[in-house]
Amino acid sequence: MKHTITFLPDNITATVDKGENLLNAAAQAGVYVHAYCGGDGICGKCKVIVNKGEVRSDKANLKQEDWEKGYRLACLSTVESDLEVTIPEMTTKSGKILKRKPKTTRTISAKAQDNLIGSWEIEPPVSKLYLELDPPTLEDNIADMNRVMRGFGQAFPDHVGEPSYDHPELIKYLPAVLREADWKITLLLLRRRQGGFRIIDVEAGDTTSRLYGLAVDIGTTTCSGVLIDLNSGEILAESSGYNGQISCGEDVISRIVYAKRPGGQQALQDKVVGTINKIIEDICRELIISPADIAYMMAAGNTIMSHLLLGLDPKYLREAPYVPSVSRFPLTKAAELGMQAHPSMRLFLYPCIASYVGGDIVAGVHACQMAKSDKVSLFIDIGTNGEIVVGNQDWMVCAACSAGPAFEGGGIRYGMRASSGAIENFQIHPQTFDPMIVTIDRIKPSGICGSGLIAIVAELLESGVIDQQGKFRHNLDTPRIRQGVDGWEYVLAWARDSLIGEDIVITEVDLDNLMRAKGAMYAGYQTLLESVGLGFADLDRVIMAGNFGAYIDLERAICIGLLPDMDRENFYYIGNASMLGCQISLSNANRFQERLAVRQLMTNMELSENPEFMQHYMAALFLPHTDMSLFPTVQEKLQEIG
Amino acid sequence: MKHTITFLPDNITATVDKGENLLNAAAQAGVYVHAYCGGDGICGKCKVIVNKGEVRSDKANLKQEDWEKGYRLACLSTVESDLEVTIPEMTTKSGKILKRKPKTTRTISAKAQDNLIGSWEIEPPVSKLYLELDPPTLEDNIADMNRVMRGFGQAFPDHVGEPSYDHPELIKYLPAVLREADWKITLLLLRRRQGGFRIIDVEAGDTTSRLYGLAVDIGTTTCSGVLIDLNSGEILAESSGYNGQISCGEDVISRIVYAKRPGGQQALQDKVVGTINKIIEDICRELIISPADIAYMMAAGNTIMSHLLLGLDPKYLREAPYVPSVSRFPLTKAAELGMQAHPSMRLFLYPCIASYVGGDIVAGVHACQMAKSDKVSLFIDIGTNGEIVVGNQDWMVCAACSAGPAFEGGGIRYGMRASSGAIENFQIHPQTFDPMIVTIDRIKPSGICGSGLIAIVAELLESGVIDQQGKFRHNLDTPRIRQGVDGWEYVLAWARDSLIGEDIVITEVDLDNLMRAKGAMYAGYQTLLESVGLGFADLDRVIMAGNFGAYIDLERAICIGLLPDMDRENFYYIGNASMLGCQISLSNANRFQERLAVRQLMTNMELSENPEFMQHYMAALFLPHTDMSLFPTVQEKLQEIG
Question: What is the Cα–Cα distance from B203 to B185, expressed in whole angstroms?
Answer without folding.
Answer: 6
